[in-house]
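[Protein data]
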Amino acid sequence: MKSTEECHRQLFQAEKQADWGTYIRLYQEAIRSTPFTNLDEWFALRINLARIYLPLGARKAVDGAPIDFRKAIEICRKILRKISISKDSEKWAATHFFLGGIYGMKNRKANTSNARKVINAGKVIQHFSDALRIYTRRNYPYDWAIIKAGLGKAFIELGSRKDLLLAKRHYSDILQVFTQKKYPEDWRDTIQVLTKLDKLIQLSRFDDRRRSKQ
């Protein structure tokens, strides 16, 4: 069995060379040799492997990295089959947070159909809502705000007037954390979204009136 130091050295070398096949194989070997009793390492290895399949940071498809949402989602689902909110609440919530983000990324793909976007938005709402059971404003204020923003974006993607009003509620809540003084850029971005939402809600009200007259 390889030492932890040797594994990290090989992983670093494979990433440096963009040898993603070797990189994934090394992670899979480490996963197989790490028992569930070593929960922190067990969890970190799986989440890091899932990250490899996502277009995060500088890692894009053009760099040769394997973009595969399905594999990333399956890894997270396997994690959730082993851990629970009662025993591993932070890791459970972090996995739901991560899954919500994955489905949000899927909706940013250029070739995603409108029907698929609705399904993905529903998954975002499901997983982010679960994450908020642990990521409360009191205990995790910044993460709470980021998740609320993700929920707001998902409701905007659903697009009905009811959904837009729910989106506005989530973005309005964010301002409890994203204050102008403490997080000026996040505050500005949130205000801009709320301004756009007010316009969308006004348009939806006009559309509802027009339909009622037909």
